[in-house]
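PROTEIN DESIGN WORKSHEET
SECTION A - STRUCTURE
LENGTH: 199
TOKENS:
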């Protein structure tokens, strides 16, 4: 287990980045004219026609150190069997950048006229979510025989359910489903930070 002092910094960075991301889509969504949190996705908040795209871009950038810090925690906490979790969490950081540099052209504002975006955006977004949802399962394998294995598996299962809901959600709840999906990842990162910083 990590020593308390050596773990607090990466744990704090991991959690702070997640909170910054949530704050960014909450603030940007509230400031966007005609934007529907229930129907529209977070990606639209930094699309080419968004009113304040820099807010969401800043929130996404905050995820980069968050995932790198979580990778550091996983590397130390799960040693010697945590290599897979470390690699996946570290990989999430450049995938966030790939999402960020491939924004949607415009916002849908509830219309199908601009529903499509660049394939690179969707490919990076899907790869990012699948990578992150895999990490609780690899961590559970590394934690097998320890008390944190069960909670890790439960959070992984919630992540899978989140992806499933987002995949089948109708137009009226698409945005809510996406935020619930993101919430499962945030819960996992916070949990990892918590157990990684325990004495």
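SECTION B - SEQUENCE
RESIDUE ASSIGNMENT:
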């Amino acid at each position: 287990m990590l020593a308390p002092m050596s773990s607090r910094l990466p744990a704090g960075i991991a959690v702070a980045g997640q909170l910054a991301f949530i704050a960014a889509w909450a603030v940007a969504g509230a400031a966007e004219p005609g934007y529907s949190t229930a129907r529209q996705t977070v990606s639209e908040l930094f699309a080419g026609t968004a009113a304040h795209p820099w807010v969401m871009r800043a929130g996404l950038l905050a995820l980069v150190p968050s995932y790198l810090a979580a990778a550091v925690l996983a590397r130390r906490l799960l040693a010697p069997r945590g290599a897979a979790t470390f690699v996946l969490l570290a990989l999430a950081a450049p995938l966030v950048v790939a999402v960020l540099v491939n924004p949607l052209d415009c916002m849908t504002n509830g219309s199908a006229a601009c529903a499509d975006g660049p394939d690179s955006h969707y490919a990076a977004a899907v790869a990012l979510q699948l990578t992150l949802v895999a990490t609780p399962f690899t961590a559970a394998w590394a934690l097998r025989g320890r008390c944190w294995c069960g909670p890790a598996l439960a959070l992984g299962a919630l992540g899978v359910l989140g992806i499933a809901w987002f995949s089948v959600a109708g137009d009226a709840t698409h945005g809510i489903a996406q935020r619930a999906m993101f919430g499962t990842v945030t819960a996992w990162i916070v949990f990892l930070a918590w157990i990684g910083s325990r004495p």
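SECTION C - NOTES
The helical segments are 4-31, 53-77, 83-100, 119-142, 149-168, 174-196.
Residues 15 and 127 are 22 Å apart (CA to CA).
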